[in-house]
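Page 47, continued from p. 46.
Same chain as before, 141 aa.
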Amino acid sequence: MTTTTKTAITVETTVQAPVAKVWEYWNQPEHIKQWAFASDDWHVPASENDLRTGGKFSTTMAAKDGSFSFDFGGVYTQVKEHKLIEYTLGDERKVSILFSSIGDATKIVETFEAEDTHSVEMQQSGWQAILDNFKKYTEAN
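Result:
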């Protein structure tokens, strides 16, 4: 039996907002629609989130010009309010997000297993861009 170890990629940021606000903006569909894309020519027309162990989530990411869209979703394997979210994507890759309160700020460290289609650098850049968009949206609102 062969076991394939997937490459783990980590992205992180510190958001100038308390962990309770960061948690809400990260998990509420009305907020997810405002930040879960890597560039301004994309948007999120639909988002559903059942934030609990065993719950499912789905976010539709789409090009604003209508040329392409895809669903990003999975099942939560562990949820610890204001601290940790772990989930498995539809293609069985695992993702872990740590939230750490640092005074009035919140550090987010997101680690995910790479897929085989795109380079590690491209995946890290894309996920970091989404995380940076989250930081910008959360700090501005």
